[in-house]
Design a protein that fits this description.
The structure holds two protein chains of two kinds. Chain A is mainly α. Helix content of chain A is 62%, strand content 0%. Chain A is elongated, with a radius of gyration of 19 Å. Helices cover 19% and strands 21% of the residues of chain B. The longest helix of chain B is centred in the N-terminal third of the chain and has 19 residues. About 37% of the residues of chain B have low confidence. Classes of the chains: A mainly alpha, B alpha+beta. The interface between A and B is large, with 104 and 99 residues.
């Protein structure tokens, strides 16, 4: 975004806005695409909804040109696009009771489940399956933090949440991922000591 | 032992603590196996997620975006996917950058536009499809490729190259399609996710009345199957997209199947949310208008069409969430609604419906029940129903989609009932049903002729947060706000 120096987006002509948008696309198309890919679970949807996100981004720029914080702004649009579609398809459903994250529990781990996860090479393939089982909201925050490496503040902008809520949500998302993973792939962990 | 505050643990994991606090946490972790193991596991899971191999976006994605901005009105409600071609993998980052920058820029005239729209269940039959369109059928569920390919029939016949790309069937005409013609694409298969459930696929589209038309087609594939009786997602969403590309060499057309019914084109119509007190929806069963011509680009003007002013405003830097509805920001509360949040005292009232878990899940919480008197008529490919929502006619298509329309007929109104004689054994609808059936050709095309006369009936209507259940005889009809319906048993 340096090609326009200190000028504000508000001052851009239409042609400059086009070039600005092209730069945004160049810098962010791949990370946004990968984020949408993990949210939607397949490449065709990823292409479609990445396209949708960028079209909406341009529309926003054109109707309300201003100096957005580009990264969280783009992820916010992409997140909304994905969740809207998942909701429309009926995928965003209430969580089954056994997948709900409990409060952080200090109880010892279940006797029949490993206490730790040991990373094996093949475990990476299981990650997609687990991600697809998470609630879209938890999947969103995990992908934003772990895959896209957004800061807490940026995640808060994307999700429209206070910092404390982001921390809480991130904790619950990690905990749910951990619990679901250990339940689905008990052999992935070490034996109970 | 006191364990770490969960937020502090997260912040420690993400390196957000000051040196002193981090040292305190580290000291605790060295003594607390539970907290230590959790932190280690969270790190491992983060590594797993980051290990997912990054994928390059399709090379033509920017061109698709450019085209959509140029030709479409912004729509915040329903995504319109565009598939211009197959994604190409394995391109180096630098090459991708070059490709992107060398694309016709946003300020330049592109190559001749390739109108591409994809359609989802619930949209209109595409009309004004360019005569060089490529038809894509996207299957959201596992489908028998061979069975579809072998049973595929296109009427009137065309010369086309037909092949699968993942779960998308592409019909690539090798000769221009005939203008102003309704084409029907039919096939039979068994859904992989529902072994034993046969699927009859039916898609219809209409070409533009003149060759070379660049008007956009308005959407959707209708899927015709037996009346869905399962609560387990009986209708597989099928998206149809049309694109105009340079055509490859001709390939012979598949042999037509022998067991397909003969029927006219079928359309499915956009539903609206079925909420009892909503105002009557505005019927939207006319094709989308053609894109307005864009002025030639100039230095100071954008070549993009002005977006729809009614589309979603840009997000503020920090505002109330529009990502998650009913979000609860209290730290200890999981905002996801739990099925157990529904009032369990209502279970008794709906127990007789014997809804499956899946149906109940889709419907949400029970709100209340009413008894009404309405009318019903069965048609060749669906039914019409009154009495569910006051002043409205509910149109249920056999493909599993529904539509509500205002009932504008009143007792004493002049009737056009005698204008057209029904085929032998079939019935022309009358009164309110007939008024709608004759005034809205898409409804007529969806339902066909009446298979019986209309009749009065008493209805028990059970309202849920996400839809309705209507007891018609001994078969509860589950009508979901997402536009689908099915018989509960």
């Amino acid at each position: 975004m340096t090609s326009f120096g200190e000028r504000s987006v508000v001052e851009f002509s239409a042609a400059e806005l086009d070039r600005y948008f092209e730069e945004i696309y160049t810098l962010y198309s791949e990370p946004i695409y990968n984020y949408v890919l993990r949210m939607m679970g397949n490449s065709l949807d990823a292409a479609d909804f990445t396209q949708e996100a960028f079209v909406k981004a341009f529309s926003s720029l054109q109707r309300n040109p201003r100096d957005y914080q580009v990264r969280p702004w783009l992820y916010r649009i992409a997140t909304n696009v994905c969740l809207d579609e998942l909701r429309r398809r009926g995928v965003v459903r209430w969580q089954a009771l056994d997948l709900l994250t409990e409060r952080f529990s200090f109880e010892p781990a279940d006797k029949d489940t490993p206490e730790r996860i040991v990373l094996y090479k093949e475990d990476v393939e299981n990650v997609r399956a687990i991600l697809d089982r998470l609630s879209p909201r938890y999947k969103t925050v995990l992908l934003l933090r772990e895959q896209q490496e957004l800061s807490y503040e940026e995640i808060g902008t994307v999700l429209g949440k206070r910092l404390s809520a982001v921390k809480s949500l991130l904790f619950r998302a990690r905990e749910q991922f951990r619990r679901v993973y250990l339940k689905e792939f008990p052999d992935a962990g070490s034996q109970k000591k | 032992m006191n364990h770490c505050d969960k937020k502090r643990l997260i912040e420690y994991l993400d390196g957000r603590l000051d040196v002193g606090t981090a040292a305190d946490v580290q000291a605790h972790l060295s003594d607390c196996r539970i907290c230590r193991d959790r932190v280690t596991d969270y790190k491992t899971l983060g590594t797993m997620i980051r290990s997912l191999e990054p994928v390059r976006p399709p090379e033509d994605l920017f061109q698709r975006i450019s085209y959509q901005i140029r030709t479409s009105r912004s729509s915040a409600s329903r995504p319109i996917a565009k598939r211009l071609g197959l994604a190409m993998a394995g391109v180096a980052a630098l090459a991708v950058l070059i490709v992107v920058l060398s694309q016709p820029g946003l300020g330049q005239e592109p190559d001749p536009p390739r109108p591409v729209v994809s359609f989802r269940a619930g949209d209109l039959m595409p009309v004004d499809v360019p005569n060089q369109a490529i038809i894509e059928l996207d299957f959201a569920d596992e489908i028998d490729h061979v069975a579809i390919r072998e049973s595929l029939r296109i009427t009137p016949p065309i010369a086309a190259d037909i092949y699968w790309f993942e779960n998308t069937l592409r019909i690539h005409p090798t000769q221009p399609l005939s203008p102003d013609t309704i084409y029907r694409v039919e096939a039979n298969a068994v859904l992989g996710s529902q072994a034993g459930d046969p699927l009859h696929l039916f898609v219809a589209f209409q070409t533009a009345p003149w060759s070379g038309a660049s008007a956009r087609a308005a959407a959707v594939a209708a899927q015709q199957a037996r009346e869905p009786t399962s609560a387990q997602d009986p209708v597989v969403p099928v998206a149809v997209s049309a694109s105009a590309l340079n055509l490859p060499a001709a390939v012979t057309q598949p042999d037509p199947p022998t067991d397909l019914p003969s029927d006219p084109a079928v359309v499915s119509l956009p539903p609206t949310a079925l909420v009892a007190d909503d105002p009557p929806p505005s019927p939207t069963i006319t094709p989308l208008p053609s894109p307005e011509a864009t002025r030639p680009p100039s230095d100071s003007e954008s070549t993009f069409k002005d977006p729809d002013p009614t589309s979603t405003p840009p997000p503020a830097a920090v505002t109330a969430s529009d990502v998650n509805d009913d979000e609860d920001d209290r730290d200890d509360d999981d905002g996801d609604k739990d099925p157990s949040d529904c009032d369990t005292d209502d279970d008794e009232q709906i127990r007789n419906l014997r809804l499956s878990d899946s149906a109940a899940d889709r419907l949400g919480c029970f709100i209340g029940t009413t008894r009404a008197v309405g009318r019903i008529q069965s048609f060749e490919r669906g039914r019409m129903l009154t009495g569910v929502v006051s002043g409205e006619i509910l149109v249920l298509g056999h493909g599993g989609s529904w539509l509500r329309q205002p009932n504008t007929w009143h007792e004493g109104d002049e009737s056009d009932d005698d204008d057209e004689a029904a085929p032998e054994g079939l019935f022309a609808p009358v009164r309110g049903f007939g008024n709608l059936w004759r005034s809205q050709s898409a409804v007529r095309q969806l339902l066909g002729w009446g298979s019986e006369d209309d009749r009065d009936l008493e209805l028990d209507v059970y309202q849920f947060t996400n839809g309705l259940v209507v007891e018609v005889g001994d078969r509860p009809l589950v009508i979901v706000n997402d536009g689908s319906w099915f018989a509960a048993r």
